[in-house]
Amino acid sequence: MSSSFKLFYDYFSPLSRSIIILLEHNKVVYEKTSVALRKGEHLSKEFGENVNRHHKVPVIHDNDGFRLAETVAIYHYLGRKGIISERWYPTDVKKLAKIDEFLQWNHNSLLLTTGSIFYDAWLKPFKDISGTEHGMMNNVRDPTNFVDIQNSLSMLENVWLENTKFLVDEEPSYAEIIAACALMQVVGLRLFAIDEGKYPKVSRWLQDTKEFFNPEFDAAHQYIYKYGERFNGPPKLGLTIKAILFLRNLMKKN
To answer: Which of 48, 168, 198, 218 lies at a 20 to 30 A Cα distance from 162?
Structure first.
């Protein structure tokens, strides 16, 4: 069967991973094109002209030439075209609205806070490197990010998971995928650990979500797990100098 569209992605993008897991779980046939964000491939003029004018991933190119960016827009497009099943894109207006409600909340809370921690710990050090070790560990951790993620986890624990096993219902939805991918950006890389005593519902929900969407979930997070295991430091510590130098050399090689 020929592919119906092309997906541009990076496994280090939680939103890219969420779309990949959704497609793989639905057994959708499509073409994948990797974009190395760490090398700035998305920032090139060519990428902007030929792939996505917003210089971000994920983005899809349909076989009729139609291009679409922004993860939630892609989710709706896949659902409305019938590329993913009704199970994952409900025809019931109220069910779909509840998923949308979470996706809107997530964008400026959980996704934002986990992204900020990832940026400070993994991306910002590269911007500060000037050929010496000077400044590598400065400002790697912004304490406000860790306050913000606790607030997001409290909302998950006490609001979204207050009365249901999953975020919007008793069965998992796309909300699970996108939220779990956001959390794994820091949990999988061991930049942050969820306090199971403080957030028992979140801890159980995350494990249930991973189990439900496996093997697709673990496959999409293989590189997150790989680097998390390699550096395996206490969550409250920044990256070691050794870790930063390793990543710097990896970027040069690739």
So the answer is: 218
Looking from the CA of 180 toward its CB, the CA atoms found within 13 Å total 30
pLDDT of amino acid 173 = 97
Is the peptide bond preceding residue 172 cis, with omega within 30 degrees of 0? no
Of 82, 80, 150, 74, give the one whose Cα is nearest residue 116. Answer: 150
Is 133 in contact with 241 (CB distance < 8 Å)?
yes
Backbone angles phi, psi at 133, to 5 degrees: -85, -5
Residue 155 confidence (pLDDT): 97
pTM of the full structure: 0.84
Q: Could you tell me the two tokens for 206?
A: 């995350």
Q: For position 233, what pLDDT does the model report?
A: 53
Whole-angstrom distance, CA of residue 62 vs CA of residue 4? 7
Residue 160, amino acid:
W
From residue 44, give the alpha-carbon distance in Å to each of 36, 41, 49, 108, 197: 11, 6, 9, 27, 46
Euclidean distance between the first and final Cα of the chain, in Å? Answer: 32
| Distance separating alpha carbons of residues 110 and 179, to the nearest angstrom | 7
Which residue ranges in the chain fall short of pLDDT 50? 1-2, 129-141, 234-248, 250-251, 253-254
pLDDT of residue 140: 42
